[in-house]
Design brief:
11 helices; five-stranded antiparallel β-sheet; Jelly Rolls; single chain; 307 residues; Arc Repressor Mutant, subunit A
Length: 307
């Protein structure tokens, strides 16, 4: 197996918050999220469709109704979601866990990694799912615009975005309640599905794509395979066509640069993101966002300034 050391990601949570929560929806065109880990404990609840993660060289796909945890030591990457996919993402600061989880039954929340290899997850019973969904829905009252939260991945990878909420006290109280209830439900329910161990060449492809170190000519050779075989294997194991995944990485890199650097033109950002031409970029961008890049960026900036 190939493993790569990933630096801790700063989720940029302001001091007044004990964490954050947002609803990630595929229809709102979430950005590509690079492999990362963070000191905060992360909770996901799949409310529609499916989501797919790669964690330490293994692929996991979780369906509607799944509650899953990502611990601080776990390097994880969202690599796909179904077209109707929607899932809540909540993160909890270590300080919240220390103060809220005092009893023996909650000591597992203080671990840096799960007790078993893989991703800790449970398929919730319908009644438990409804309670969790309603709790999380209520916590969203007073949050930022849904489009902004999704475009920033909830916390703003490589940008100056900062999470905010209209009622910090209510949010913090909700996070305290949520972590206790979610942990209780994690002891019931049942496991779903399995995982796929990724071939070393597929792992290498993900690593190179994550660094945007994947030139067309040498990419497959550096992964140790022919271009045709790597494309087939990548699609079969990751569940996403290689070209579509590569383009999602490029689009996310373009948006990072375009929103964070006033000094660069759109065309400069296009080429630095890895696209071969503006025509190629424009076609892919409009297919994904249903509008041109200038219109999209202008709308995104306007929302960020008013929310």
């Amino acid at each position: 197996m190939l493993f790569f050391v990933i630096m801790l990601q700063d989720l940029k949570i302001r001091e007044i918050y004990d964490g954050f929560i947002f609803l990630a929806e595929a229809k709102r065109h979430l950005p590509y999220l690079k492999t990362h880990r963070h000191v905060e404990l992360e909770l996901n609840l799949v409310v529609r469709g499916t989501i797919t993660y790669v964690v330490y060289g293994r692929r996991f796909t979780f369906p509607h109704g799944t509650l899953l945890w990502m611990f601080p030591s776990q390097e994880h990457q969202l690599v796909d979601r179904s077209k109707d996919g929607a899932y809540y993402v909540a993160v909890f600061k270590p300080s919240l866990i220390k103060s809220a989880c005092m009893g023996k039954g909650y000591q597992g929340l203080k671990r840096k990694s799960p007790m078993r290899r893989g991703v800790m997850h449970k398929m919730l019973e319908p009644a438990a799912f409804d309670v969790m969904r309603q709790t999380m829905d209520a916590m969203m009252e007073g949050s930022l615009d849904a489009d902004v939260l999704n475009q920033e991945g909830g916390f703003g990878f490589a940008s100056n975005f900062l999470y905010d909420h209209g009622d910090p006290d209510a949010l913090n109280a909700g996070l305290h309640y949520l972590i206790i209830q979610a942990w209780k439900h994690s002891r019931t329910g049942h496991h779903v599905g399995g995982s796929v161990d990724l071939h070393p060449s597929v792992q290498k492809a993900l690593e190179l794509l994550g660094r945007l170190d994947a030139s067309e000519g040498s990419f497959a050779a550096r992964c140790g395979m022919s271009e045709t075989y790597l494309s087939r294997l990548f699609h079969r194991q990751v569940g996403v066509p290689l070209n579509r995944y590569r383009n999602s990485v490029r689009l996310a890199r373009f948006l990072d640069m375009a929103k964070s650097s006033r000094a660069k033109t759109i065309l400069e950002c296009v080429y630095e993101a890895g696209f071969g031409s503006y025509a190629q970029f424009y076609k892919i961008f409009t297919q994904n966002y249903h509008q041109g890049p200038r219109e999209f960026l202008g709308r995104s900036c306007a929302k960020s300034e008013t929310d």
